[in-house]
Every structure is written in C-alpha cells, then in structure tokens.
Specification:
The protein is α/β, with parallel strands linked by helices. It contains 13 helices and twelve strands. The structure holds pyridoxal-5'-phosphate.
C-alpha cells in the first residue's frame, strides 16, 4: 500500500485554465482581474469591510503590526500554543509577545486569563481560532474594549467557521487568513488581511504597496502616485490569485469533502479512543468549525510517540504541533502570564490525523484501520 501523506494539496482541476486566462490578460503583477475576483469571493465569505490579498498569513500579520504602529516597549498578548508567525510579526517591530495559556477543550487562548496579562504597555491581543473552533470573542472583545487594546484574529484555520452565530475573522478589528498548501483553501503560499474597521483601509493599502498610494492612483483618486508612508511588497501575483479563485469557487465542495473525513474520524474512532485512553475533539453545538484539523490526544508523551511510530509503520503519516513558543529558544526571551500548564500538557500529547479534500475512500478506511490497530 502507498504511504498516505499527512497533507496532499488539493486541486479542483480548474486552476490551470484560470492561470492561462490570467496570462492572456497581459497583466501578471498583483491587483488585476483575479485579485479582484478573489477579494470579492473572500468578502462574501468573511463579511469584511475590505479584504487585501497578501503573499502569506505571516505577511498579513506583519501588516497588522505596521498598521497599529507597534514598536519598542509595546506588548502583544497571544497564546503560546500557536505558529511562530504570530509572535514574529511583532518581534520584528521591537514589540514583545506575552504568552497566555490555552483551554483544554478547544486549545484556544483562555479568555479568563487575558485580563491579568494586560499592562499599561499592552496594545493588542492576537487570538487564534485553533482548528477553526472559535475563541470566545464576545468576552475577548469586551476585555479589549475595557482596556483600549486592539483585537487581531489569526484566522488561518477558520475561514468559513462560526462561533455563537458569528463569522470567524469578522469580530476583531482585523483578521488574517492563510492559503498555504496545508490550509483548507490554498494556492501554495498566500494569505489575506481582512479589515473590519474602515479607518484601517487606506493605510493598509499603502503599506501593502511599498508605502505608496498606488491603489488610490489606480482608482483615479490621485493623479500620480508617490511614497507616502513606510511599507513593503505584500501583494501576490495574478498567477497565484487565479489559482486561488479556482479554489474559492469550489469552497463549499472542498469544505464538505473535509467535513466528511472529519465526521468519519469522529464517529468511527470514538470507541477506539475510549478503549485506548485517547481523547477526541468534542465541541459545543454552536461551534461551527470548518474541519481544518482532526486531532487526537494521547494519554501521555510516551503513548503519542508510540502512536506516531505505529502509524508510520502501517503507512500513515501523522504529525504533531505546536512546540509551545514560550519553550522555544527564541520564545524563552519573552514573558509568560502565569504557568502555561495546559499548553505544556496539550502540546506533548496532541497528534493530527491526515485531513485533506480529495482523500479517497480506500485511504480513509486504511487510516481508520491503522488507528484502530493501535493498542
Ligand atoms: C499556517 C499558519 C500561519 C502562517 O501562514 P502562512 O500563510 O504560511 O504564512 C499563521 N498562523 C497560523 C495559526 C497558522 O496555522
């Protein structure tokens, strides 16, 4: 039997035709026909005031730091159980991440521990909707409002997800998306910055276009464009935007394929988990997650190590994440708010099963049998 990869980047089959069309339009730099189309599709999905395609979620996060003019002495609260880009975006500007623990059930930042991490230097709170199971945004937004800090949603996992009826990525002042090949909707490398407050839109366009007012020039709002602020180049080419549009046009189909795999794991592995001491994700009914991650929690690190080895031996690649940022060589330089005991515990026990659109039924069955043969 062939080895089943952890992720196989899904292609809808429509990508090449759209790339060909982009080429025939004679405009391959950013912000052409396909970027506009992708923006429209993403605006419909997210309800954002303005959606800017970026070269990655990492770059979208960097843009949030520039937009908020963060720098030396500023603090940004975030979970330690997340991807490095959350912290790097702010560290690059001289600001300090302050790491807060996560919750057991969702692995999201523990909203009950945010307030005590706030100081007079706190400027922002970055939340990550882990696996697309939404954070408690009502409470987090209320805390942020009380202290005058900005909320950024790292929504790399959560496009299309909902919590208590609200769309993920639409509640903070801004949110970020990733179209890396490991995400639900992908173009190899790509991302977006979703702005939910009109006051950020004009400067975000400038930051993304090398600090120039080129976007206003193209709309005919100024008669020449020039350097007006600090900025960089965060716009993807039309080649990538065309690929992305092919994926976004099939959003519902991709999501339902992923949800089928997620639900099958959830149903078919429940008994095995009970028998072998593993935990599976169980969410509250009004958590509408978009099937980004299916995780299982082993009873301890030793069992997880054995599980990953067993799966590899029977031809199924499984991976774990995240190495908590506060325990990494770089992250040790920054403060934590209290003990991060749930982060340490969950990160030592979590494993992700393969989850991708386009998974064949035979593969899904092979994975189920592989898991169930682990004792
Ligand atoms: C994937 C991911 C990122 C980074 O996305 P890129 O597009 O690869 O830069 C950031 N945050 C989270 C939570 C992610 O999962």
């Amino acid at each position: 039997m062939d080895e089943i990869p952890f992720n196989r980047p899904y292609a809808t089959g429509g990508e090449l035709a759209l790339i060909q069309d982009a080429m025939s339009r004679g405009h391959l730099a950013g912000d052409g026909f396909y970027t506009k189309r992708a923006r429209q599709l993403l605006t419909d999905l997210t309800g954002g005031e303005s959606v800017l395609l970026t070269t990655s979620c990492t770059h979208a996060l960097e843009m949030t730091a520039l937009l908020l003019r963060l720098g030396e002495g500023d603090e940004v609260i975030m979970p330690s159980f997340t991807f490095v880009s959350c912290a790097n975006a702010f560290v690059l500007r001289g600001a300090r991440p302050v790491f807060v623990d996560i919750k057991r059930k969702t692995h999201n930042i523990d909203e009950s521990q945010i307030e005590r991490a706030i100081t007079d230097r706190t400027r922002a709170i970055v939340v990550v909707h882990y696996a697309g199971a939404g954070c408690e945004m009502d409470q987090i937004m209320a805390i942020a409002e009380r202290h005058g800090v900005t909320v950024i949603e790292d929504n790399a996992h959560g496009l299309g997800g909902r919590i208590h009826g609200q769309t993920l990525g639409a509640m903070g002042a801004m949110s970020t998306l990733s179209f890396h090949e490991t995400k639900n909707i992908q173009c190899g490398e790509g991302g977006a910055l979703v702005l939910n407050r009109p006051e950020f839109v004009e400067r975000a366009e400038i930051i993304r276009e090398k600090g120039t007012n080129r976007s206003r020039f193209f709309r005919g709002q100024v008669d020449k464009y020039t350097w007006v602020d600090a900025g960089s180049s965060y716009l993807p080419s039309e080649v990538l935007a065309a690929f992305l549009v092919a994926q976004l046009e099939r959003f519902d189909d991709i999501q339902s394929q992923r949800m089928h795999v997620w639900r099958t794991y959830s149903q078919e592995l429940a008994q095995w988990a009970d028998d072998s001491g593993f935990e599976l994700p169980v969410y509250e009914p009004d958590v509408g997650h978009p099937a980004h991650i299916f995780w299982v929690l082993a009873s301890d690190l030793e069992q997880r190590t054995r599980f990953i080895k067993h799966m590899a031996e029977v031809g199924v690649k499984c991976v774990f994440h995240y190495v908590p940022l506060h325990s990494s060589p770089m992250g040790q330089k920054y403060p934590t708010s209290g003990q991060l005991s749930v982060t340490d515990d969950v990160s030592s026990r979590l494993v992700r099963l393969p989850l991708f659109a386009g998974m064949r039924n035979s593969e899904l069955e092979q994975i189920l049998a592989a898991v169930q043969s682990f004792r």
